[in-house]
Specification:
263 residues, alpha/beta, 8 helices, 10 strands, 33% helix, globular, binds fructose -6-phosphate
């Protein structure tokens, strides 16, 4: 696991975008992104969009697969992840909407929608670069505590804490859906590279548990300790609980040239 501690959230976005751009450039214009919603990755997507606009990153043939979608929200609702991904990823990066996929939380047959999404990811050749945020309870995607570490895309019930955290996107907590369709932890682990971003003190406990705690379904993001290419980019507030804080900083400051990022 690579842990990069940045002074603030703007730097987190620049570093996460630089990491993803370096990986994407090596893969080529048909790179397959896995994309998170929520507030954590938005600035990173904006930084990537700047690189695309400047001609420094070619995503002209790229595909994207969202992590999750609410179940029980109206299609077209501005907080539905179909809409959020369109506004924060598809449009800014200039992706072809036909190649941008979101789990079908509106499906009549929700049980079949999970395996269908898994098949679509497989048909695209798998995810090359998976962007992640982390919930204050350690969830990635909407894999809430006690999710199976090998789970696949399926319906889940949102934890009370997640509904409270996400109430800020809705008029009241009563409007936050209770269910979702989310990629599983096994699905996320299949991505060839993972870039997780977290900022703010509300994420400090989750980041400490995910990075340095035991691998446990109680902190689902801790499964990333078993991933070969996971990068965690955090600001100082989110890094506040890390025991090896100084070691991560020393490591990043002394990277060999071939591992350095252009930021
Ligand atoms: C969103 C998702 C979630 C969020 C997490 C953090 O697609 O899968 O895991 O990444 O809830 O949300 P923010 O970034 O809003 O704090």
């Amino acid at each position: 696991m690579e842990v990069i501690i940045c002074p603030d959230e703007n730097r987190v976005a620049q570093v996460a975008a630089a990491k993803a751009a370096k990986l994407a450039a090596a893969i080529g214009p048909a790179v397959v992104f896995g994309v998170a919603t929520g507030s954590s990755p938005v600035k990173t997507y904006n930084e990537l969009a700047k690189l695309v606009a400047a001609g420094q990153l070619d995503v002209s043939q790229a595909s994207a697969f969202a992590l999750d979608e609410y179940v029980g929200i109206a299609a077209g609702h501005p907080q539905s992840y179909h809409e959020v991904i369109n506004a924060t990823v598809t449009v800014p990066l200039g992706l072809d909407p036909a190649r941008v996929h979101v789990p079908d939380g509106f499906a009549a047959d929700l049980e079949a929608a999970g395996p269908a999404y898994e098949a679509a990811i497989r048909a695209a050749g798998g995810v090359d670069i998976q962007f992640l945020g982390v919930g204050s309870n350690g969830h990635i995607g909407f894999n809430e505590p006690t999710s199976s570490l090998t789970s696949r895309t399926r319906i889940k019930t949102l934890a009370p804490r997640t509904r409270e955290d996400n109430a800020r996107f809705f008029a009241s907590i009563d409007e936050v859906p209770r269910h979702c369709m989310t990629q599983g932890l096994g699905t996320i682990m299949d991505a060839r590279n993972v870039v997780l971003m977290a900022t703010g003190e509300n994420k400090a406990a989750a980041i400490a548990a995910v990075v340095e705690g035991p691998v446990t379904a109680m902190w689902p993001g801790s499964v990333l300790q078993l991933h070969q290419h996971a990068t965690i980019v955090v600001d100082e507030a989110a890094a506040a609980g890390l025991a090896l804080h100084d070691y991560y900083q020393e490591t990043y400051a002394n990277l060999p040239d071939w591992q350095r990022l252009e930021v």
